[in-house]
Amino acid sequence: MEFLLIVLISFSGSLLSPLLFRLLPKKAGLIMAAIPLFLFSWASVKMWHIVDGVVFQESLAWVQSFGLDLLFRLDGLSVFFLMLITGFGVFIHVYANSYLENDKNRPRFFVFLSLFMGAMVGLVMSGSLLLMFVFWELTSLSSYLLIGYYHNKEKSRDSALQAMLVTVMGGLFMLAGIILIGHEAGTFRFDELMANPDLILQSPNVNLIFILLAIGAFTKSAQFPFHFWLPNAMEAPAPVSAYLHSTTMVKAGIFLLARISPVFNGLPLWHVLLPAVGGFTMVYGAVMAIIHTDLKKILAYTTVSALGIMVMLLGIGTTVAVQAAMIFVLAHALYKGTLFMVAGNIDHETGTRDVTKLSGLRKKLPYTFVAALLAAMSMSGVLPFFGFVAKEILYHAAAHSPGWSYLTLAATFIAGVLFAALAIEIGYKIFFGKEVETPKHAHEAPRGMLFGPLSAAVLGLVGGLFAEQLAQPLLHHTSNVVLKVDSVLKLTLWHGFTLIFGLSLLTLAAGWGVYRVRHKIRSFAGRFNLNNLFGPEAIYQKFIPTLLKVSKAQTRFFQSGLLRNYLVIIAMFFVGMVFLVVGFGSFDVPFLELFHSSVGFRWHEVLIVAIMLIALGVLLTSESRLTVIVALGLVGYGTAMIFLFFGAPDVAMTQFLIETLTVVLFVLILNKLPKFVDISTSMRRRFITPALLFGLTMTFLLLWVHQGEIDPSLKEYFAQNSYLQAKGHNIVNVILVDFRGLDTLGEITVLVVASLGVYSLLKIVKEDKPKVGK
Amino acid sequence: MDVLLSIITGLLYAVGFYLLLHKGMTKMIIGIMALGYASNLFIFIVARLTRGIPALIKAGESTVSGEYADPIPQALVLTAIVIGFGIQAFAIVLLRQVYLNTGTANMDDLNITDKLEN
Question: Which chain B residue shows the shortest CA-CA distance from A613?
Answer without folding.
Answer: B8
